Amino acid sequence: MSCRQRNPAWPLLPIAVVAAVLGAAGCGSSGTSSAGAYTVGGTVAGLQSGQQLTLLDNGADSLTLAHGGAFTFKEALPNAARYAVTVATPPAGQTCTVAGGSGTINSANVANAVVTCSSQSFTLGGSIRGLNGSGLVLKSGGETLGVAAGATQFTMPTPVASGSAYSVTVLTQPTGLACGVQSGSGTMPAANVSSVVVNCTAQSYTLGGTVSGLGANAGLVLANGADSQAVAPGATTFTLAARVSYGAQYAVTVQSAPAGLQCAVNNPSGTMPAANVSNLAVVCSPQTYAVGGTLSGLSASGLVLANGADTLAVPGRSGSFTMPGALPTGAHYDIVVQSQPLGLTCAVANGSGTVGAVAVTDVAVVCGTGSFTVGGSISGLGASGLVLANGSDTLAVLANAATFTLPSGLPLGASYDVRVLAHPPGVDCSITNGSGSVGNADVNDIAVACGPGSESVLHAFAGALADGTSPYASLLAGADGNFYGVTYTGGAYGLGCVFRIAADGTESVLHSFGGGADGANPHGSLIQASDGNFYGTTAYGGSNGQGVVFVISAAGVESVLYTFGSGTDAQQPYGGLLQASDGNLYGTSLAGGANGVGAVFAVSLQGAESVLYSFGALPDGQAPFGGLIQAQDGELYGTTSAGGAYGAGTVFRVTLLGAESVVHSFGANTDGADPSGALVQTADGTLYGLTRDGGTNSTGTVFAIAADGTESLLYSFAAGPDGVNPYGDLLLASDGNFYALTPAGGANNAGALVQITPGGSEAVLYSFGAGSDGQTPYGTPIESADGTLYGLTSAGGAGGGGTVFQVN
């Protein structure tokens, strides 16, 4: 028996007995305390010099530390055993919080617990919605909180150390309801956190997505459990009629395919969120291809491989395998080990991808009698958001971690290729020694180094008429994985264009605006509506010269949906559009309306337009420059750049029936002034935004408006090298911080990318303007799934016409 092979009887024995048996046998192993047993450890951060901290694992194994850094408990645990790291004795004057300290051993050492100590600690809590039943239990770290029916607020029992990672989850659901958590994880600021939101509901939502390759063929039937639905010939999208309850599991399958076609569903399963699911993708093709590969070291029976619902029981001593279900071109596959063979550990390499026009034969499954840990060190990680992956084995790394181990152990001879799947926004994490093959020892030399993100130009607009120039809006991440946007000028006629940017920076102009009946000079950002098409506005052009609403397909076919008129109609829409819950498009115009000082308008996808509200005499707002949001209460919120009680702009609310009210008037004392962008709402209902001017230094602000309408300044911008005079919207990123672009300020006075924490701390992440870099960014950064930030500059770059940039 290998030193790493587990005797099935060991979990039934006390740890000391297991250790004694192993010691008598004289069997050791590199990287673990004893054969078949695994260590538990992690990182201590913030422990002050001269202080001591005592930790416990499972309430018994004690470890006293006099310094920060890596730690490992003395007692090793057998496979499948539970571990729970807690603080027994904190250092004097400090609070220590454990994150990631509990779980189950999975044939690998654990080095992912993070204990953060700080002289400051703050409460963790938030609001609860819809809890009309009993039984809800919340969990954070190692503590739980039972919540009574009808509760609208909660606070976890123990304060959390500043700088520690936190994560609030639902441990037990209330009777008859499903509850989910929004904004439940992050890094504890130097302030109380009250923005966690627990949503409870019995409501149901729809399942849908896209269809490709169906053509005019009939016979496609999709199913979710016992519910099935036929898809019409020629369809490119679908929505199942049967709704799914929030929190329930779903798994969409192809019940039958059209004659001559094979169809598969990508992203077919998951847990129903508190929103409609629209990211399922059905792909059809007349040709299917097998998915399989090689097997090595399989000397016993019991191995079961799975690709979604498609499973394969592999006979012992097989050297190759082919999954039972062949897949059409465009279908995704992800081969995993569903069940391990007796006495062996098997791992999959090259197990995921997309089927092309040939059979997949390069999946490799390696089995062995040992199980070895894959991990290493981490440096420079001060925030949550880093996700590491080795194939389908993923690890969410916590803030302040200095060590890591992947959750699953690997057998002798298995290959590994550890990569960064996601990183904190604005942070660059690189890996050295990340790939290789497992030898007869644990892998512990992988190094992950994190630091400030590096900026690069993805595309420089040429500055010639053929290409676009001067983009003032924000990028849009399309459903097809490409980026889309508009430029104010340039294109074939010099009046702006719609462009597409691939992930590798390849740019193509989809449409050049020509004025006349067509639009001219698009300023606001694009949206992708529920029908899959892109919609936007131009500030000018159209038959009346006052702008248009246009629609354009991903193939570049553009048409004018509505032309703004004269008189009391909306005119000169500078902001982007919003598709509200009723399916209609809403926006604002800088001019027009019954009083000539701007309006809120609505446009159906069929082109029927109406003026929802006309701004009027002071103290009403005037000249709205930015777009709208639909807030949690279902109403529309926006800003005006002028008007209000002090003439410096407003935040306003308008219902879908057109009733408007001023929420806040800017301009009093050192308040912000002249907001030009849209608002963003956090899970606790607070609205945040930017003003171009005002504040302590008269160079702009970040403001917050509570649910009761009370306004406060989160941050006042200063003179360079700080960013100044922000024009766009705030981005609320996955790490819980806000990000913004300023067209001026920064080290080169050519604009900056800034980060603002919920507590009001600000930092310049990048200053534009050096060399052929972009300059003067007006829009809003966007975040990709891996944490990379993307955006546009209106000037600079090799051609002088602006850039598309990324900060990794």
Describe this structure in words.
With 808 residues, the protein is mainly β. It folds into five domains: 10-119 and 371-452, no CATH class; 121-201; 204-285, Immunoglobulin-like; 288-368, Immunoglobulin-like, CATH 2.60.40; 567-726, Neuraminidase. The chain contains one helix and 91 strands. It has a four-stranded mixed beta sheet with strand order 5-2-10-8, with no helix packed on it.
Notable characteristics:
single chain, mainly beta, Immunoglobulin-like, four-stranded mixed β-sheet, four-stranded antiparallel β-sheet, 1 helix, 48% strand
Shape: globular
> How would you characterize the largest beta sheet?
4 strands, mixed
Residue share in β-strands: over 45%
Q: Specify the structural class.
A: mainly beta
Please tally the β strands and state the result: 91
Which strand order does the major sheet show?
5-2-10-8
Number of helices: 1
Measured distance between first and last alpha carbons:
47 Å
Q: What's the number of structural domains?
A: 5
Q: Write down the overall mean pLDDT.
A: 91
Percent range of helical residues? under 10%
Provide a concise account of the structure shown.
The protein is mainly beta and 808 residues long. Helices cover 1% and strands 48% of the residues.
Topology overview:
Layout: H1 15-25, E1 37-38, E2 40-45, E3 53-57, E4 61-65, E5 69-72, E6 77-78, E7 82-89, E8 95-99, E9 102-104, E10 110-118, E11 121-122, E12 124-129, E13 136-140, E14 143-147, E15 153-155, E16 160-161, E17 165-172, E18 178-182, E19 185-187, E20 193-201, E21 204-205, E22 207-212, E23 221-224, E24 227-230, E25 237-239, E26 244-245, E27 249-256, E28 262-266, E29 269-271, E30 277-285, E31 288-289, E32 291-296, E33 303-307, E34 310-314, E35 320-322, E36 327-328, E37 332-339, E38 345-349, E39 352-354, E40 360-368, E41 374-379, E42 387-390, E43 393-396, E44 403-405, E45 415-417, E46 419-422, E47 427-432, E48 435-437, E49 443-452, E50 455-460, E51 468-469, E52 476-477, E53 483-487, E54 489-490, E55 497-501, E56 507-512, E57 519-520, E58 527-528, E59 534-538, E60 540-541, E61 548-552, E62 558-563, E63 570-571, E64 578-579, E65 585-589, E66 591-592, E67 599-603, E68 609-614, E69 621-622, E70 629-630, E71 636-640, E72 642-643, E73 650-654, E74 660-665, E75 672-673, E76 680-681, E77 687-691, E78 693-694, E79 701-705, ...
Parallel strand pairs: 2-10, 12-20, 22-30, 32-40, 41-49
Antiparallel strand pairs: 1-6, 2-5, 3-4, 3-7, 7-9, 8-10, 11-16, 12-15, 13-14, 13-17, 17-19, 18-20, 21-26, 22-25, 23-24, 23-27, 27-29, 28-30, 31-36, 32-35, 33-34, 33-37, 37-39, 38-40, 41-44, 42-43, 42-46, 45-48, 47-49, 50-91, 51-54, 52-53, 53-55, 55-56, 57-60, 58-59, 59-61, 61-62, 63-66, 64-65, ...
